[in-house]
Specification:
Its EC number is 3.4.21.26. The chain is α+β, with helices and mostly antiparallel strands and about 675 residues long. About 20% of the residues lie in helices and about 35% in strands. Helix 2 packs across helix 4.
C-alpha cells in the first residue's frame, strides 16, 4: 500500500492543567475556522481529498446506483385540517420535498431559493387549514425563520420571525394567533403584531401542544433524560400550572378530542405507560394502558371508539388497539411486514382512521391507513417513484457485550452468499434514539455491490426504553463503545467478515462512537467513516449545541465527569505510531450542531500520529449542514463514503473495478 504524505500542521506546546490532569491540545488553533492558518490547512485538505476521490474506482458506480435507488422519493403521512390534506412529498426529479395541500403545491423550497440551499424545516397548519406557519433555513444552518402563508391565495401574511430553530407552533382556534418558541422562550404571537406576550421566559428546548378546543396548552421543557411539564387553562387568567418539575422521567401530556387528559410517562415505567385524567385536575392520573417491559412506547392516537398505541419490540414496530373507555386490549393493527412504523397521524377531531408510514430494509417508505370501523389496513400512498430494489435478505443476529448484556445486530446482504465479506458496521447509541429497519439507498447500493451492511443495537439508544438509554449515557458512555467493539468481534468470530474487510460508519453522536472505537481498538478495523462527529470531549460544550448535551455526556467543569470524558475522548487518545484504520471525516460548513472543529483537530492528530500506511482524509461540504440538505448533496456524500470504504476493504477488487480510475462526473 502506498504511503500517505500529509502537510505539516503546526503543533502547539499547549498543555493545560485540568482537575489534576495535564491535557495537551496541540491543534487548538484549528478551532478558529476563520483564521488564515486554518483556511490554508483546510485548502490543502480539500486538495488531498479531491485527488484521492478522483482515483476511487467505484465512485461513479456508487453515485449512479445511490441516485437510482433514491428515486423512490419520499412521502409523509397526511396532516388533516377539516377537508384539507397536507402532505410532504419528494419526487425523483426534485432536490427537496415539497409541501402540498390537496395535491396543489404550497411550499416549494426551490421556488423560494433556486440555488437549492434553502430547506423547509417545519410546518403547522391552522385548525381550519386556512393558514400555514412554516419555517425555513439556508445553507444547512438550521437557524429557522418563520412565515405565515394564506393557503388559498399563497400569499405571505406574516413574518419573517427569526430565532425559531425547529419551533413547535400551537395555533389558537380562531387562527389569529399562536404560541411558539422564539429564542428558546415560549411566547404568544398575534398575526401582524410586532408585540408578543411572554409565557415562559427561562431558556429551554420547549415542546407545545394545544387541545382541539383551544383551551388547554401543554408545555414541556427537556431536562437531560427527563423533562418538566406545565398545563395552562387558557380560559382562566392564570399562569401555567407546574405538573412535573424536577422528576426523573419523560412525560408527555395532551388533552384529547374527547376532553380527557392523556399522559404518556416513563415515571415508574422505563418503557412508558399511558395514564388518563381530568384537565381540571391535571395532577391526578390513573393507569390506562400498562407498560410493556419488552416494548417501548413510540406513539399514541385517540380515535372515536379506540386508542391506538405504537410500540417497538426488538426493533420491530407494532400497533396495539385498546378500548377508549377502559384501556382494555382489543387486538393488533394489521401491518405490511416486520419493519418500522412511523408516528400515528389522526384527525384532530377523532374519527375512525389513522395514517402511518411503514418501511423495512428492502421496502421503500409508504403510507398506510388503518380504519377502526372496518378493522382493515390499506395502502394510502406508495412512494412517489418506482425502482428495482436489489435482492437482499435481512438476518437478525444475537450477541453479547463484554459485560454479558444481550444485544442485536441486523445484517443485510445478498441472498445465498456466505463466508467473510466486506462489511460496514453502522451504529449510533445515544440520546435515546432508536435504529430500526429502514429503506436506505446507501445501504442497498453497498449490498448490491456484494457487501454486507450491519446495524448495531447499542445501549444509549431508545430500543429498550428509558433504562436502555440511561445505560449508555454520562458515566456509562464507555458501555456504548464496548457494545460496538463486541459487535465487531462477533462479526469476525462468526465468519461474517475479517478485520481487513470491516469498516465503521457513524454520524454525529455515531461519529463519536466511531472515533472511540478506532482509537481504542484500531486493529479490529480497516476503515472508518466519521461524519459530523464529536471528538474533543474535553471542550465539546464550547461550540455548536454542545452546552445542551451536558445531560447526555456530563460537563468537563465537573471533576468526576471530566475524568470520564477524558477517558474516552477520541482526540486525546490518539497515539504516535499506531496503525490506525483508513479514516474519512465528512463535515459541513453550515453545521451549527457539531462544529467541524472536532474533525479538523482529530484529522490533524491522526495524520501526525498514524504509521502512514492508510489514508486519513477530510471531506468538507461548505454549503451543507448537520441535517438533510438537497437530494444531490446526500447522493454525492453517500457515494463518496461508499467508494472510500470499498477501496479500503476490498469491495472494489471483488467487483472487478480495482485499478480503474473514475474522475468526478
Amino acid at each position: 500500500m502506498q504511503e500517505q504524505s500529509y502537510p505539516d500542521a503546526r503543533r502547539l506546546p499547549l498543555v493545560e492543567e485540568l482537575h489534576g490532569h495535564a491535557v495537551a491540545d496541540p491543534y487548538r488553533w484549528l478551532e478558529d475556522a476563520n483564521s488564515t492558518e486554518t483556511q490554508q490547512w483546510q485548502a490543502i485538505q480539500d486538495e488531498l481529498w479531491l485527488n484521492h476521490a478522483a482515483s476511487l474506482p467505484t465512485r461513479y458506480r456508487f453515485r449512479t446506483r445511490v441516485k437510482a435507488l433514491s428515486n423512490v422519493g419520499s412521502i409523509s403521512a397526511p396532516v388533516w385540517r377539516g377537508d384539507r390534506c397536507f402532505v410532504l412529498r419528494r419526487t425523483a426529479k426534485r432536490e427537496h420535498a415539497v409541501l402540498s395541500v390537496d395535491d396543489q403545491v404550497l411550499v416549494d423550497p426551490l421556488q423560494l431559493d433556486p440555488s437549492g440551499r434553502t430547506t423547509l424545516d417545519s410546518w403547522q397548519p391552522s385548525p381550519d387549514g386556512s393558514l400555514l406557519a412554516f419555517q425555513v433555513s439556508r445553507g444547512g444552518d438550521e437557524q429557522s425563520v418563520l412565515y405565515v402563508l394564506d393557503v388559498t391565495t399563497g400569499q405571505l401574511i406574516d413574518g419573517p420571525l427569526d430565532g425559531c430553530r425547529y419551533s413547535p407552533v400551537a395555533w389558537l382556534p380562531d387562527g389569529k394567533s399562536f404560541y411558539y418558541v422564539r429564542f428558546r422562550r415560549v411566547v404568544r404571537h398575534h398575526l401582524g403584531s410586532p408585540d408578543e406576550i411572554p409565557v415562559l421566559t427561562d431558556e429551554a428546548s420547549y415542546g407545545l401542544d394545544l387541545s382541539a378546543d383551544g383551551r388547554s396548552l401543554t408545555i414541556s421543557a427537556v431536562r437531560g433524560a427527563a423533562n418538566d411539564l406545565w398545563l395552562q387553562d387558557l380560559a382562566k387568567d392564570e399562569p401555567p400550572l407546574p405538573v412535573q418539575v424536577g422528576v426523573d422521567a419523560i412525560t408527555v401530556m395532551s388533552v384529547g378530542h374527547d376532553g380527557r387528559l392523556y399522559v404518556v410517562t416513563t415515571r415508574d415505567a422505563p418503557t412508558g405507560r399511558i395514564c388518563v385524567g381530568d384537565p381540571e385536575r391535571p395532577l391526578v392520573w390513573h393507569d390506562f394502558v400498562a407498560a410493556d417491559p419488552e416494548a417501548p412506547l413510540s406513539s399514541l392516537a385517540v380515535l372515536d371508539k379506540v386508542v391506538l398505541v405504537g410500540r417497538t419490540r426488538r426493533g420491530i414496530g407494532e400497533i396495539a388497539i385498546h378500548d377508549l373507555v377502559t384501556g382494555r386490549p382489543l387486538g393488533e393493527v394489521p401491518l405490511p411486514g416486520a419493519g418500522s412504523v412511523g408516528s400515528l397521524s389522526a384527525r384532530p377531531e377523532g374519527g375512525t382512521e389513522v395514517w402511518f408510514s411503514y418501511t423495512d430494509s428492502v421496502t421503500p417508505s409508504a403510507v398506510y391507513c388503518y380504519d377502526a370501523g372496518s378493522a382493515r389496513t390499506t395502502l394510502w400512498s406508495g412512494p412517489p417513484g418506482v425502482v428495482g430494489v436489489p435482492e437482499a435478505e435481512s438476518t437478525r443476529l444475537d450477541f453479547t457485550s463484554a459485560d454479558g448484556t444481550p444485544l442485536q445486530l441486523l445484517a443485510v446482504g445478498k441472498p445465498g452468499q456466505h463466508g467473510p465479506r466486506p462489511t460496514i458496521l453502522y451504529g449510533y447509541g445515544g440520546f435515546g434514539q432508536s435504529l430500526t429497519p429502514t429503506y436506505s439507498a446507501f445501504a442497498l447500493a453497498w449490498v448490491e455491490a456484494g457487501g454486507v451492511f450491519v446495524t448495531a443495537t447499542l445501549r444509549g439508544g431508545g430500543e429498550g426504553g428509558d433504562a436502555w438509554h440511561r445505560a449508555g449515557m454520562l458515566s456509562n458512555k464507555q458501555t456504548v463503545f464496548d457494545d460496538y467493539v463486541a459487535a465487531a468481534e462477533f462479526l469476525i468470530a462468526s465468519g461474517w467478515t475479517t478485520p481487513d474487510q470491516l469498516a465503521l460508519c457513524g454520524e454525529s453522536n455515531g461519529g463519536l462512537l466511531v472515533g472511540a472505537a478506532l482509537t481504542q481498538r484500531p486493529e479490529l478495523f480497516a476503515a472508518a467513516v466519521c461524519s459530523a462527529p464529536l471528538l474533543d470531549m474535553v471542550r465539546y460544550e464550547l461550540s455548536g449545541l454542545g452546552e445542551s448535551w451536558v445531560p447526555e455526556f456530563g460537563s468537563a467543569s465537573d471533576p468526576v465527569a471530566f475524568e470520564n470524558l477524558l477517558s474516552y475522548s477520541p482526540y486525546h487518545r490518539v497515539s504516535q505510531g499506531v496503525k490506525y484504520p483508513a479514516v474519512l471525516f465528512t463535515v459541513f460548513g453550515g453545521d451549527t450542531r457539531v462544529d467541524p472543529l472536532h474533525a479538523r483537530k482529530m484529522c490533524a492528530a491522526l495524520q501526525h500520529a498514524t504509521d502512514g500506511q492508510r489514508p486519513v482524509l477530510l471531506r468538507l461540504d461548505a454549503d451543507a449542514g448537520h441535517a438533510a440538505g438537497s437530494a444531490s448533496q446526500g447522493i454525492g456524500l453517500a457515494a463518496d463514503m461508499l467508494a472510500f470504504i470499498a477501496d479500503q476493504i476490498g469491495l472494489a477488487d471483488q467487483i472487478g473495478l480495482a485499478g480503474q480510475t473514475r474522475l468526478r462526473p
